[in-house]
């Protein structure tokens, strides 16, 4: 259980890192220690040269994979890289991860069997996933503002002065 708590705390650090692209953090903020910690846990992965590419965008499939890896502690890509999803027609790879996230209600997709595999993940959708992953979703929670308010109450948006919740995130 301690390992799960440590991994969830690391997940929250990534959410804090994601705020950079919304203009909520100063340009000189240094999140390299948090990124390196997540890389050591094999949750945040770099390219073939080891570069974490923190300025790159994050897609919906990458966000789903991140949460699944953080919650289960299983970070080997081969664990999650099934070719297709059983629930979504637009998932060409990492179907196991996306189906797992769907099965535990972290993701719901776009409707009509579409997940939005390569779409950029927005700050608000990352907060929705975090609220769900942490078990704070309620039946009457409205999208996206109910989730944003829950995330604020949980402290996930602490130290954020201004945020564009519809902005695409970077790592």
In terms of topology, how is this protein built?
Blueprint: H1 2-18, H2 32-40, H3 60-72, H4 77-80, H5 95-103, H6 123-133, H7 145-154
Q: Unreliable segments (pLDDT under 50, ≥5 consecutive)?
A: 1-10, 14-28
Largest sheet: none
What is the 3D shape?
Answer: globular
How many angstroms separate the termini?
27 Å
Strand coverage percent: under 5%
Which secondary-structure class do the elements indicate?
Answer: mainly alpha
The total beta strand count reads: 0
Helix content: 40-55%
Gyration radius (Cα, Å) is 15 Å
Number of helices in the DSSP assignment: 7
Order of helices and strands: HHHHHHH
Q: What is the residue-averaged pLDDT?
A: 80
Explain this structure to me?
Helices cover 43% and strands 0% of the residues. It has 171 residues and is mainly alpha-helical. α1 runs antiparallel to α2. The chain starts with a helix and ends in a 17-residue tail after the last helix. The N terminus is likely disordered.
Brief synopsis:
With 171 residues, the chain is mostly helical. Helix content is 43%, strand content 0%.
Task: List its salient traits.
mainly alpha, 171 residues, disordered N terminus
């Amino acid at each position: 259980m301690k390992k799960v708590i440590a991994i969830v705390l690391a997940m929250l650090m990534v959410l804090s890192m994601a705020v950079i692209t919304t203009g909520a953090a100063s340009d000189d903020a240094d999140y390299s220690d948090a990124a390196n910690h997540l890389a050591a846990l094999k949750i945040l992965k770099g390219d073939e040269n080891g570069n974490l590419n923190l300025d790159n965008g994050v897609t919906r499939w990458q966000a789903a994979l991140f949460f699944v890896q953080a919650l289960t502690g299983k970070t080997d890509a081969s664990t999650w890289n099934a070719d297709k999803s059983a629930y979504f027609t637009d998932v060409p790879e990492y179907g196991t991860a996306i189906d797992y996230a769907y099965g535990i209600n972290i993701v719901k997709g776009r409707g009509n069997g579409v997940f939005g595999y390569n779409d950029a993940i927005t700050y608000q959708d990352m907060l929705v996933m975090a609220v769900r992953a942490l078990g704070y979703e309620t039946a009457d929670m409205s999208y996206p503002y109910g989730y944003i308010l829950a995330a604020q109450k949980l402290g996930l948006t602490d130290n954020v002065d201004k945020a564009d919740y519809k902005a695409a995130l970077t790592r």
